[in-house]
Known about the structure:
By secondary structure, the protein is α/β, with parallel strands linked by helices. It has 23 helices and 24 strands. The strands form 4 sheets. Strands 2, 3, 4, 5, 6, 7, 8, 9 and 10 form a 9-stranded mixed beta sheet that branches. Strands 14-15-13-16-17-12-18 form a 7-stranded parallel beta sheet, with helices on both faces. It has a 6-stranded parallel beta sheet with strand order 19-24-23-20-22-21, sandwiched between helices. Strand 4 and strand 5 form a beta hairpin. It binds adenosine-5'-diphosphate (ADP) and magnesium ion. Magnesium ion binds next to helix 11.
Amino acid sequence: MDVQYLKGVGPKxxxxxxxxxxxxxxxxIEYYPxxxxxxTKLCKISELIVGDNCLFIARVSSSMSVKRIKKNLAIxxxxxxxxxxxxxxxxxxQSYIREKIHEGATYLFFGKPEWxxxxxxxxxxxxxxLDDIEKVQGVYPIYNLTAGVTxxxxxxxxxxxxxxxxxxxxxxDESFRKxxxxxxxxxxxxxxxxxxxxxxxxxxxxxxxxxxxxLLQLALLSRKNSMIRTEKSTKFFNVDITEFTNxxxxxxxxxxxxxxxxIAKDMYSSxxxxxxxxxxxxxxxTMIAAVAMYIAVKxxxxxxxxxPTTILANQHYxxxxxxxxxxxxxxxxxxxxxxxxxxxNIISRLKSHEIDILVGTHSLIEDNIxxxxxxxxxxxEQHRFGVNQRLKLTNKGKSVETxxxxxxxxxxxxxxxxYGDLDLSIVDEMPAGRKPIKTYVVNxxxxxxxxxxxxxxxxxxxxxxxxxxxxxxxxxxxxxxxxMLYQKYKNEDFKxxxxxxxxxxxxxxxxDEIMQRFKNNEVNILISTTVIEVGxxxxxxTVMVIENADRFGLAALxxxxxxxxRGIHQSFCILKSNNKSVNSRQRLKIMEKSNNGFEIxxxxxxxxxxxxxxxxxxxxxxxxxxxxLLTDIDILNxxxxxxxxxxxxxxxxxxxxKLKYILExxxxxxxxxxxx
Length: 676
Ligand code: ADP
Ligand code: MG
């Protein structure tokens, strides 16, 4: 039912309520308090705690004095006492107080005592009659508000709704609730708004948070389960990968070997692979992908790898082709800059299976790209794609193995929620010989010194990236900032050097050309937006300068920093920022201290909260009303266990019709993504 039809709401209020997300009764019931105020304890005056809200009974022991300080400032004050002591009460300009309380009478007061002239004083205490004590004493919900909507108003609406005893369908059976210590749903909904004690609050919150996390887990697991249950039509046979790995100029790290084993095991099993490979920037995920593709190709299947940018796709193509060409494995690439003629050629050779591996960007998803028998789909930098795009590619083959790679280190709690439907492999080791990148936070005052340092690096033969922030909704401003920086570097500080720039609005061909020249060391300084953020690997580049660094999230800064430190030379990251706020300084300092992506991601999450976390929003993370991925880890673990058990015993939820109904209702769009 629309809230507009509640008594006392009307069209005007209903507009205001919409602003805070309340359109119907269900929204209202789920408009949980932000916090609670403790009005449970009655204090004696001697027990009043300075700085805490206190509820106390006292007798008015003096007459009301009035001081007029200025024309519009009147201070009313009086003393109150009980058998333990005396306290002063003060009100500003609230003349009605003179009518409300009388010397010699006893009242109930609520307020926050402060020290004043050696005694305790309460400003603007709320005064109740003693008869009201039943109503007043308890736990008070505090709601988030908007202009025109007061605490009292929401309180009244809640009263109205709950006085009609709404009946919410309980979707757990009793044994389940007992097992996980959950209270009944109607009880939880009432107590979250009308708790008698903090125990009520915690029971209710526990139930509601459990529901939020559990239903999501269940949705993810049931999706995963429906995929796992798809048996492959043919199993992969074992492949000797040494023919491929022997071609590499380096030894694979132990982490790479372990993850390759995990992948191979999936591929050789009778179940379809759905695996997420997570590893810090530079941990060598591309080689892992290459081995997986090698296994698929040797089994007679085609493979494809999708990257978020043309530059990155080209880089993958070059690296893969370097080795696969020696093994008679055909690699091709499709991006938005592929010519029509070339594309037609690729499409026809793809259908006749003359191409074994197709590298590309989003262009791969287009309907006319058809494979003869696609066996493996890899998405690189998955956080840049939506789940839909991944599934669309997977649908180009029957029972396709899926590998998803990401360098955005996601804290564990987050990855359970985001990728609960994928098995997880972690590449937790860097190739040997890498030196940790040295990071410095600087402001404009140090510009001269920074420039001198940059010149020194260039004179030693190294190359430099300069990145400036990308403002999502103002592309023109962006271009200007790249171009402005370019002018400054090119015409003022670095006249004798080769400076080039790169931004998302340039034609792919131009971008590729500049990137190629940078790779060939024909460009000393490359100025760009975050288009170079993911994946690019130029081992001779040793300095990453980030302008207005405070405008980036830590995870993004870490990604950008990962563009350097890829070779044998010591690398540096210089974070420029003139932002003086403590919070911003503190954030950037974390970058100076840590080179560990997971640690940084965790800190970023703590500082910014899950909602703003880099790249997560478009990945379809649902927003929780109460659950907090940082603090509710215990409940999260419990829900994961519970969801596993339910799905194991009842994979299609046919024995849990109510649960199934709730789940489909809640996640029909977000999670059970239609793939057609
Ligand atoms: P990311 O995990 O960020 O995708 P890449 O796959 O781009 O990392 O690898 C980064 C660089 O490290 C590449 O130049 C790659 O050739 C190199 N590399 C990968 N594995 C190893 C290894 N085991 N030893 C040395 N270098 C490696
Ligand atoms: Mg990569």
